[in-house]
Amino acid sequence: MIVAGACPLDCPDTCSWIVTVENGTATALRGDRRHPYTRGALCAKVKGFLDYTRSPDRLLYPQRRVGTKGEGRFERISWDEALGEIAERWKAIIARDGAQAIWPYQGTGSMGILQGVAGCGQRLWNVLGTSRHVMTICTIAGGVGTGYTLGHPQVGMDPETFSASKLILLWGTNTLTTNHHLWKYIEAARRDGAYLVVIDPIRTRTAERADEHVALIPGTDAALALGLLNVVVSLGQEDREFIDAHTTGWEPFRERILEYPPERVADITGVARERIVALGERLATTRPTGIRLAMGMQRHGGGGMAARAITCIPGVTGDWRYPGGGAVYDTRGFFRGDWKTLCRDDLRPPGVRKLSMTRLGEGLLEVTDPPVRSLLVYSSNPLVTVPDQNKVRRGLARDDLFTIVIDHFRTDTADYADLLLPATMQTEHADLHYAYGHLYVAWNEPAVPPPGECRSNSEIFRRLARALGVTEPCVYDSDDDMARQVLASGDPALDGITLERLRRDGWARLNVPTPFVPFADGFRTKSGKLEFYSSRMAESGLDPVPAYTPPYEAAQRDTDLARRYPLALIAPASHYFLNAMFVNVPELAQRQGGPTIELHPADAQSRGLRDGDPARVYNDRGEFRARVIVSDRVTRGVAAGIKGFWPKLVAGAANANATVAERDSDMGGGAVFHDNRVEVTRLSHDG
Ligand code: SF4
């Protein structure tokens, strides 16, 4: 038997896959070759997914903590005991402090609509009136910035049209590692004469395959965008017809652009003036130009403004009017499912507070009225993934905090749980998926029964509702019911895309034209135009015109800090891990190797560091250990680590997040992982 499904992970590609099942066992998993975008190619991380589902250390039964918090000692209990205990403790918490003392804490371990970040559990949390969890970990600053420009945070050019681009800018994205299915469209365009530029502080594997690599100082992307537009404008190559017909606020934006001549931008970005002029000239004269910007470049104090500035570029050049022109950050906004019915926000009591995902330490240690008394973590491993790791650990160690963790493995976070509940993996449950990097919807049919006593998140929440005695009927809807409700929004892009059709075919492209040029006739803003000037921003107290907002810890903004901590640390994704997932898979961990810190030869030499040295990477917030790589893949003043290592699996019991500030970006409360100054010294020993 073969069963169609889809990869649920935090990746723009959302691959469709096929599972072969023999005698009730999944014996093979391969990409679905029929899928037009992912075409059968899974990535290095997911090829061994079936082995991952059968890992010997997988959680198979509910467990109760018997050791101290953090020690990781548990004993097996039944589901009835586990759910009974949660219900009893939560009822007492609600009676004493109200439901806001409960924080359902979700991550991006699944991007699914039924089991993951798109809506899982929301109905129940709304009925109970728990604190609201705000997903600030990933896309939000850039999404808000993009939204001010285009009218929606999750829309942009159709990635499939990159094959028609003549100039492609991969801006802050290591495409071959984190979005590799886009590469074939880029290669098709290059075969047709397109020129590929990668803009990234690191010479990644993607940058190595480009025609040109522009290495800029982290967080200076908005300045580069304005500098490139300065060249376009000084050549008189702005598209006046498009600007007049489809944009607002050109005059103030033009004045702003003129404030960023190439020499000033060279000072800010560290990119030579001649390189800025040459790329600006190329941009001025090449139609269509397509830009793929990704999440890494917006994780700093000016990240929202950076994404806004970049999405304005095609408004000046007029590229939004062509297939292969424009920019794309996120594509989820083209899927207009019935979110209201899925999440049932109408059931939420008024005035319920919000808690930021990436301020977990603050939420557990400083929030009062009421304090957080219970944390329920699902699809997330925050002790690994969120800022200020030491503070998060102190919060999780609180004796009076009742913590429940639903997961596949005993992660660092799980070690602090009072109750540990075993979750299903993707081959064992149903889910509905849309994508942030293409325009296809997918259905994931369960291929095999769950092992042990694992349960899907949606099933756990139905059972929890029953244990709590919730009477609102919608919290008991089945997975199929909820999928049908979401698909029945009435939006024309979903017309004819039913659960039955998805079950039959596995996936479907949204009903949009091919090629899809989403803004040729107007934008999703109130004005219907691309907004160089945003009144909404002015009303929010933000600069209404795109500008360069330096990172908090940029040398220009905090010179004293920059003197004490001269290196700007960024910690991008490993080729073998997905956020904090797969770090515990021996084969992938071995291929990755341990934590590393990559330094420019001049920076290494001035610190007496040599290739392979054990090192301590630190600032006032914390430290972690890593092995030095001396390489000109990074520019002077930049240190490059890797995100995702589990503290308990590495020397020093910390990863890069021990040094990251619990601080918000300029828009949306996004985290500032790449706004982080550190120093690096040699460790006298490896321990
Ligand atoms: S992580 Fe991304 S590329 Fe890898 S299988 Fe999943 S969707 Fe595909």
Q: What order do the helices and strands come in, and which of them pair?
A:
Layout: E1 2-6, E2 16-22, E3 25-31, H1 49-53, E4 63-65, E5 74-76, H2 79-97, E6 102-106, H3 122-128, E7 132-134, H4 140-150, E8 167-171, H5 175-178, H6 183-191, E9 195-199, H7 205-208, E10 212-214, H8 221-234, H9 240-246, E11 247-248, H10 250-258, H11 262-269, H12 273-285, E12 289-293, H13 303-317, E13 326-328, H14 339-343, E14 354-356, H15 360-365, E15 374-378, H16 382-385, H17 389-396, E16 402-407, E17 419-422, E18 431-433, E19 440-444, H18 457-468, H19 479-487, H20 499-505, E20 507-509, E21 530-531, H21 535-539, H22 559-564, E22 567-570, H23 586-592, E23 596-599, H24 601-606, E24 614-618, E25 623-630, E26 638-640, E27 677-682
Parallel strand pairs: 6-15, 7-14, 8-9, 8-12, 9-10, 11-21, 12-13, 15-16, 16-17, 22-26, 23-25
Antiparallel strand pairs: 1-2, 2-3, 4-5, 4-17, 18-19, 19-20, 22-27, 23-26, 24-25, 24-27
Helix pairs in contact: 2-18, 4-13, 8-10, 8-11, 8-12, 8-13, 11-12
Bound molecules: iron/sulfur cluster.
Iron/sulfur cluster binds at residues 7, 9, 11, 13-15, 42-43, 45-46, 180, 578.
Overall shape: it is: globular
Catalogue the unreliable spans.
none
Bin the strand percentage: 15-25%
Heterogens: iron/sulfur cluster
**Structural class by SSE content:** alpha/beta
CATH superfamily of the largest domain: Dimethylsulfoxide Reductase, domain 2
* Strand neighbour order, sheet with most strands: 5-4-17-16-15-6
How far is the N terminus from the C terminus? Answer: 50 Å
Number of helices: 24
- Beta strand count: 27
Largest sheet: 6 strands, mixed
Radius of gyration: 25 Å
Fraction of residues in helix: 25-40%
Mean pLDDT: 97
